[in-house]
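Handout, section B. The chain below has 381 residues.
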Amino acid sequence: MGVITNIEDLRILAERRVPRMFYDYADSGSWTESTYRANSDDFARIKLRQRVAVNMENRSLASTMVGLPVSMPVALAPTGLTGMQHADGEILAAKAAEKFGVPFTLSTMSICSIEDIAAHTSKPFWFQVYFMKDRDFMGRLVERARAANCSALVLTLDLQILGQRHKDLRNGLTAPPKLTLKNIMNMATKPAWCMGMLGTRRRGFGNIVGHATNVSDMSSLSAWTAEQFDPRLSWDDVEWLRQRWGGKLIIKGIMDPEDARMAAQSGADALIVSNHGGRQLDGADSSINALPAIMDVVGDRMEVHLDGGIRSGQDVIKALALGARGVYIGRAFLYGLGAMGEEGVTRVLEIIRKELDITMALCGLTDVQKVDKNILLPGTY
């Protein structure tokens, strides 16, 4: 396996160990994937100011996100099908995040259920929801999140119509995977993954199957999703959910300053600058490029987070310098999970923490909450 030194090492390992359809599901964008690539590439143009002869002792990465303490301002993003990257993947990722002191966000489209995560963790986690036509189902989801002691709800607004992801169509993505000759041949080269899946009962959509009508697998889920994701979604619906939930509410999928204004007016506690990892509107701006204009509009009115393209601790500090209170990692932790299970997720968090800590020190700071534009080279952001 060799020495693991960065996120890319884990990506390469995950690509070897995870069946093609599920690796591609995580590591892909819509259409030409231009926005998917830009999310990470656009961090590289932002340059840091190196400082010297400053006291670098007693550094702290501790912060808060929506008022909740975090060991560093990094959360695990909600990602669908996490339990297909590795058996019981959501449980393993949640346990790694809890031990590390960072938030774990469970997707509605997860393999393990809300109740599974609550049973295997001792601290509150976050839960992500979509707006659906079946308000009874939505209401039950909210109540299940409340019963599981979730400390924040993340409402994703940018998936009411699904972006076309060519790799998923070519691979015939299903969960559990359909046993076509092509899939069987590919899975035969991933024995550890297969053994893990044989050892768990969690292979369907735990939050939906048994809770929503006529949903049993990925095929029926696709039909249900197309029917249930409400294209009439409005800010009045957001208000309905805010009142129904009553707790911390984070709105995900904001890329435009006008939408950011509406998010601030909605009474939400935070918004996430996110283009869904480049998986929805191909040709949209990168998240890091969109961040400054959104900060200008609502940065003094609500907490702003960022999702998309984070592959290192340096990416984290650049987002913080441009005003984000915290960031989310999706693909990065999925690479670790697919490569090495819970240990891999922990390794991802360790890598990001070390890179963030060293970069902060070399920029002349000792407290992550004091990171601002002064650490960036003018003209590069």
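Note. The longest strand covers residues 249-254. Compare this with the example in section A.
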